[in-house]
Write a structure and sequence with these properties.
five-stranded antiparallel β-sheet; alpha+beta; 19 helices; 19% strand; 4 domains; Helicase, Ruva Protein, domain 3; 616 residues; ibrinogen binding protein from staphylococcus aureus fold; 22 strands; 36% helix
């Protein structure tokens, strides 16, 4: 997870490893990925920076990836002229930003005869120790910055000159694409606008209380932290939630108001390395394969995987990547980890869109005021003199445009009111759609995280691929994609009384279990308020009364195949299948239900239930 902790740790690692080094080789791996060989401290280092929308990163790889000499872009040409052969003299990470600024100096052709010949830097290897004797970044050197912005789909690599003007970028951003921050040659470079959120490193009990009070009760604590604090990533949010409650996916309505002091303390403690600059990079493995990493230990990952200390954050990043190769993931665990990461990125995009829609809806609530102001101006036309900047009536103050007449000011408010009304008419519908999509992605993530074996993992991958319109999870290449599998038939588990329990392990299987296998009078179960599997009990002898022991067995399985698997007591909703309805237009497995009752059980898998004699 390239969050602020990872980026800060990498900035420190680069400073201690390649600072003052010479960039001997440099090329494009693809249009958005740069690879450079940096000679520093009498060693060659492979520095890679990528602005890939799905997998942005910067790290020191264990080997230099293959570059494409036939790929010629304006950005690549500028890098060759101003960066290759230069010296890396500065490395900086702005506070709480996923940005690293690399300062490079180089003597350009014309300043030195031997440079004027434009040596091929891929073949000319100069000992930086000899070069540094001549103070290579003294007078006569040209200075540029290569700015690496790691911000999901907005990631970019931007080359900036000594005057702060953009020279070129891996991705050009026009004013149509972004009115706030276009990225084009000759424009001044500006940092991404910082969000107006509190600094989590200085979070107080009062700040935590305000944060919780402003969140939706149905939201997870992790999401509230991500939305409410600057620089907090989903992984950081889940870790704080886990340290506080032992449940990374806990809902806000389950967090006690008395926990605010501890919430603030855990948040500060987790981000303390940003102040102390002490790092403990860790890779988390399942079945001896890396599935995640962090710059500092993460308890919620350690609860589901084996923690392994590594020498550097780059080593942790490299453990999860196939740099420059065409091979896919090494085995099922690696494949699953990449799909989970892709789902997380998509969920983050949807959450950002939802937040934007909710802000628009909040602002649209003020549209009635625009109409009232227009009506008030019309009612007091006689009171307004040419050039007035406001109309004051009792306690009401209405801003006026001095360049407009009173009547035109009123008309301007009416026009603005109608425009806002049109824009806001469909906002509730769009918000509901985004909330449903986010719920679906969270369900898919839980199922991907728990998928075992190639067939189950491939089912999740295909379902996610269909949802995103063909965008592939990280590590999937067009030549390596598997053929679409036919939906597999869900097999049942026979409960000791002869009733059969069916469990959906994906969205498609949830639909199959609920609507194809389950009969109207069969019993349907799902963990309350948490993503997870649909579970059906097919009664051997359908009757008015349910077998409570069978229901409890099915509920334990529903809890196990949910986001609350690692929790204690888990609430599970139980209802007849006839009370379950599919949400029109939503993803597979998305339903509404009614007439439910709720029971509390402990999660149990098939093996433990068989050992207890509750499953045959």
């Amino acid at each position: 997870m390239f969050d602020v902790l990872t980026v800060a740790a990498l900035a420190d690692e680069l400073t201690g490893t390649v600072l003052d080094g010479r960039i001997q080789k440099l090329g494009l791996v693809n249009g958005t990925t740069v690879a450079a060989e940096v000679y520093a401290n009498r060693r060659r280092h492979a520095l890679v920076a990528s602005a890939d929308s799905d997998d942005p990163a910067i790290w020191l790889a264990d080997r230099l990836p293959s570059t494409d000499p036939g790929l010629i872009t304006p950005f690549g040409l500028q890098l060759r002229k101003y960066v290759r052969g230069g010296f890396l003299i500065g490395i900086e990470q702005p506070a709480l930003e996923r940005v690293i600024r690399l300062s490079i100096v180089k003597r350009l052709a014309g300043h030195n005869d031997h440079e004027a010949n434009e040596l091929d830097d891929d073949e000319a290897e100069i000992d930086p120790d000899d070069a540094q004797d001549d103070a290579p970044w003294s007078a006569g050197m040209n200075r540029v910055e290569l700015i690496v912005e790691i911000m999901g789909r907005h990631s970019n690599l931007i080359l900036v000159d000594g005057d702060g003007l953009i020279m070129e970028s891996a991705k050009r951003v026009t004013s149509r694409m972004s009115r706030v921050r276009p990225v084009l040659p000759k424009l001044p470079y500006t940092m991404p606008p910082p969000p107006d959120k509190p600094d989590p490193r200085r979070l107080t009990s009062a700040g935590a209380e305000s944060l919780l009070a402003g969140g939706k009760p149905s939201a997870t604590l992790a999401d509230v932290l991500v939305r409410g604090l600057r620089g907090v990533s989903p992984q950081i949010g889940r870790e704080v939630a886990f340290r506080l409650t032992g449940n990374a996916g806990i809902k806000l309505n389950a967090v006690s108001p008395e926990m605010t002091s501890e919430l603030a303390r855990h948040t500060r403690n987790l981000l303390e390395p940003l102040l102390t600059r002490t790092w403990q990079p860790v890779v988390y493995k399942q079945e001896d394969v890396a599935i995640g990493y962090a710059a500092v230990p993460m308890s919620h990952l350690a609860a589901i995987a084996n923690a392994e200390d590594v020498a550097s954050v780059s080593a942790a990043v490299d453990a999860l990547r196939e740099v420059g190769g065409d091979a896919g993931p090494r085995d099922h665990a690696q494949r699953r980890a990449r799909i989970v990461a892709a789902i997380d990125r998509e969920c983050e995009k949807v959450s950002s869109r939802l937040h934007s829609l909710q802000e628009q809806h909040r602002r649209s609530a003020k549209t009635a005021q625009l109409r009232e102001w227009g009506e008030t101006i019309f009612a007091y036309l006689w009171h307004i003199q040419p050039g007035d900047s406001q109309l004051v009536i009792d306690d009401l103050t209405i801003p006026l445009d001095p360049a407009l007449s009173a009547k035109d000011n009123a008309q301007a408010y009416f026009d603005e009111y109608r425009k806002a009304q049109r824009a806001g008419a469909r906002l509730p519908e769009h918000i509901a759609e985004a909330e449903t999509e986010r719920s679906y992605l969270r369900q898919l993530r839980v199922q991907a995280d728990q998928a075992e074996g190639f067939a189950a993992i491939e089912t999740i991958r295909q379902e996610f691929d269909e949802h995103t319109g063909g965008r592939q999870p990280v590590g999937e290449r067009p030549g390596n994609r598997s053929k679409k599998q036919a939906p597999r038939r869900v097999t049942g588990l026979t409960e000791v009384s002869g009733n059969v329990i069916y469990i959906g392990r994906s969205g498609r299987e949830n639909d199959q279990v609920t609507f194809d296998i389950g009969g109207a009078e069969d019993t349907w179960l799902h963990v309350r308020g948490v993503p997870g599997s649909h579970v059906i009990v097919r009664w051997l002898r359908p009757a008015e009364d349910e077998d409570e022991r069978a229901v409890e067995t099915a509920a334990a399985l529903a809890a196990h195949y949910s986001g609350s698997r690692t929790g204690g007591l888990v609430e599970v909703d139980v209802t007849r299948r006839k009370n379950v309805r599919k949400i029109k237009g939503a993803g597979p497995g998305m339903v509404t239900y009614r007439n439910e009752r709720t029971i509390a059980v402990r999660p149990q898998d098939e093996a433990s239930l068989k050992a207890e004699g509750r499953l045959d």
